[in-house]
Amino acid sequence: MSGDGGWTLPRPPEPAAGASAEARHAALARAGRAEAHDAALDDLLGPIRAPESPRARHWGQGAAGERLTAQVLAPLAHAGWAVLHDRRLSGGANLDHLVIGPGRVWVVDSKAYRPNRIKVLGDGRLWYGRWCLDDVLDVVRWAAERVSDVLAVAASPVLCVHGARLPRDPLRWDGVVLASPAALLPALIRPPAGGGGEEDIDVLVRRAAAAFPPAHGNEPGTAP
Q1: In terms of Cα–Cα distance, which of 178, 13, 20 is closest to 92?
Q2: Is the peptide bond before 191 cis (omega within 30 degrees of 0)?
């Protein structure tokens, strides 16, 4: 019921977190099984279940990470905040999670890594094993800037890191907050240094839902 005594329609069900990544994983897995079915040994040994390709496994792990992050973010709904999952962004990219509080917005990207340590090396950059995280940080910063432009509210970039250990948790690095699932909610609900804005949550949600439609059913252009 709305504040003026009239009835309002409930929000439509939110698309499942990781839906587009899981769809990509399933498509790659089906393609792998089809190739195995066409193999010559299939005639001799019966149906062969091909192991997942590294690419398919990568998308499956990404989808699982997004679902886990969604579980962590779920309690925010009890505080009146909103979380939109798996939303399409311009340029073929997608937003894993868009968290909307009173005048405050976070773009949360989920990253599922194998157990390892994220380190700051001598070059002053973040590394996960042999992989520099510059590109990962650039992407989530770009996504937050795009959301800020569209919603006319400052959006902060966040990485929820599954599996890997951070030097500090949460870690604030070059404008991005990196947090484990355990540290994610405290990092988000911490009052901002300059105070939050006054924009109404429902207004921001309607604006975000119109600007960033569900990504599921669209070909994702970036890795999960």
Answers
A1: 20
A2: no
**What is the DSSP code (8-state) at residue 165?**
B
CATH 3.40.50.300 for domain 64-211: no
DSSP secondary structure, 68-114, as one string: HHHHHHGGGGGGT-EEEEEEE-GGG-EEEEEEEETTEEEEEEEEE--
8 A C-beta contact, residue 103 and residue 34: no
DSSP summary character for residue 102: T
Two structure tokens written together for 103: 């005048």
Q: Using CA atoms, how far apart are residues 15 and 98, in angstroms rounded to an integer?
A: 12
pTM, two decimals, is: 0.73
Rg, the chain, Cα only:
20
SS3 for 33? helix
Give the Cα separation of 178 and 109 in Å (integer).
10
Integer CA distances (angstroms), 195 to 19, 130, 208, in order: 34, 39, 22
Q: Where are the domains of the chain?
A: 64-211
- What are the φ/ψ torsions at residue 67 (nearest 5 degrees)? -65, -40
- At residue 107's C-alpha, the angle toward residues 160 and 109, to 5°, is 35
Strands 171-173 and 131-132: unpaired
Tokens of 119: 């380190």
Pairing of strands 94-101, 176-179: unpaired
Query: pLDDT per residue over 92-130, tens digit each?
Result: 789 999 999 987 899 999 998 988 999 999 999 999 999
